[in-house]
Structure formats: structure tokens, C-alpha cells
Amino acid sequence: MSAATAGLPAPENTPAEAPGVAGIGVRRALYVDNPIYAEAAYGPNHPLAIARTQSVRELCRINGWLPAHASCVSEPADPRDLSRFHSRDYIRALRAADEAGRASRAVRERYAVGTMENPVFRGVFRRAASTVGGSITAARLALDGRVVYHPAGGTHHGRPDRASGFCYFNDPVFAIATLLDAGIGHVLYADLDAHHGDGVEDAWRDDPRVALFSIHEAARWPHTGPIESAERERICNVPVPRGCNDTEYAYVLDELLEPLVERTKPEAVVITCGADALHGDPLSTMALSNVALWQAVERIAAYADSVVVLGGGGYNPWTVARCWSGLWARLSGQPIADTLPAAAVHVLGELESDLVDEDERDPAWLDTITDEPRTGAIRPEIETLVQQCRGQQPGQGARIVQPAINGDRTHP
Question: pTM of the prediction?
């Protein structure tokens, strides 16, 4: 079903007849962005107080990967849209905290806003709403058989009534809902972030139209997504041990994702591609190359005609910028040179991080996009994990209940 037949117009600056950029297969690739992501956010001493999406866009521009007709500027989601998943009192509280520039103790305790984890900063409400708006736009555009990339998305920890894990709203929930609203019968949500996407799973785990796959690091915040929680044939959680390498990652996808796709037959996919699963990220101990993540996304994107690719976590500015810019090049079918232009080297050289010491910075992060593969043996604990995951998928039908998204779009 196209965006036009679903009554979902494309944004004004991205006409339906725009040629786009050839991406996965013969589909057109589009890049969704908003100027607000270039603004300072989160304040000092926060893991996300680093240049992320702005560096990605700049690297794409310098390398000639982002022609004007492939880029789309989205609008923030309005409170009516937000209230389909988030409570009206929480929406009001976040907006009021933004306007006041602070959160009261009551707001901090009730909504987890104004904490060190989820600070109040100038424009926090508009930025969070823009993330949701971008993912709604991405899903609408994907209905025309496109691959749509929204690297500022992937705020998968957001809860209906509070902020959580640096996430104020939950944009992947809205991307999935938009696809279902348009008549898509089955959606696959694949989460490649090092941290389990608890907010998305809780939103959709009881809806038989949505299959959920997550490969994340075991014993890592938010300490959810154990094998035991995947009791239905359309939910697969894979908590991998420390040091997961490229070979092990591909093995997990072969053994667990392929059967899930065969069972659920998705018509659309939403992917959260957190860059914190990469070697060198300060908030995880997974050890992937960016090539492994690119290949995983390409593989998942091939399962359906309508594809939304989001960002997610990632706290090393060099590995994030290289991974997500390279991912766009791969999705849009453009070559990645071994040698970067001087301007791109300058962008990487200007990045800073208090979480990555200078002696831990790989020189390759400063002048290349593509990592060397990080292959290795498949450890016995990975093989055991796969066997355990298979044992938790009995192939029984899912219980049909009301979906988590509320069709009532009452303005808060």
C-alpha cells in the first residue's frame, strides 16, 4: 500500500515523483532529518552530549552521498499524535519543564525528567517530538516501497508515562503504528542496539501483528530481554555475552532471525541500529565491526518492501559517525572509498569525547569509514545461547489482545 492510497501525504519538500537514490534492490532510499539535531542537547557530562547525527549528515554531504532529492526534513509530532502512546499528563509535564528550564522534584520523581539520566535542556520537548515526527514520516514514506533512514530515531526505552534511558518519547513505537495504521498486516521490529529495547517490546508484545527480534548484550541496562521473556513464536530475545564478534553475530542471525521471519512473514520492517554494539563503545563490551552491522541491516531490509531504519544508542562519536554515515551509503547504493576527503578527515578529527581516552582511540577512526572485520571463533556459550533461544520458541499461536497504541488521538 502506498502513502497516497493510505491517505498519508509525503512532506512538501519530498515530492512523490522525486527520483531518490537507488538503495537495497531497486528501491529508492530517503534520508529523514531535522535542523534541531544540530543544536546542543543534554547538557554537560552526559553520554549523549556528543556530535552524532550532525556529524553523520556532514560526512554524507562531504562524500557526495546525500543529493537534495534524497533528503527530507520532517516536522515534530504534535501532542495529538504523541498521546496515542504517551500519557497526556506526561506530555504536559515534559513541555512545561522545557518551558521553565527545570523540573520540580515532583516531576523528577513522577516522570524521570530533570534527572542526570534524562536532563532538561533547552528545546528538549521539540527535539523529542521531532524524533517521533521523523519516524512517523519515515514510515509513511516507506509505504511506497522505499528504504527510509532516520538516524536520529531509535529512542527505544521511552515509556508511556515517563522518560527512560536518555529517551523522552519512543519513536520506534510510532513507526510501527504508522505502518499498521496504513494496512500493513505484519511488521518485524529488529533491534540491534547493545541495550534491549524494553519500551518497544512492552508496547507490542501482545499484538500478533508485530514480530520482535532483539540481539543485545547480556547483563546490561535495562536488564530486560532475557531468553525467558520470549515465550511467543513471534518474540526472540538474544542476550549475547561480552565480546560478541562478527562471526558470532552472523551465526545468531542465521540460526534465530531467519526462522522468525519464516514464521511471521513480515510485510514491513523497522530496524533500530544502535552503534553501541561496535567495538570501542564506552557503554557496552560488544565487539562488532561496522561492516557486521551494515550487513545485518541490509539482510533484514531484504525481508520486506517497506523498510524504516533508525539510529539508537552509540556513545563513541567516531564509531557512531563512521557507522551511520557508512550505513546510509550502503542503503543508498553508493561506494565507500578507502581514502576520505580532507574535509571528512577534518570532521572526524574535530570530534571529542570524555568517555573515550586518547590512548583508546583507534587511528583508523580518524581517516576511514569502514572497519576491518572483527571475525573469530563461535564460542560454546554462543552455541548454547542459540539452543536455549530455540527451546523458548515452541511455535504456538499468539494470544490476541488489544494493541498498546491507542487509536484515540485526543489532544492533551
Answer: 0.91
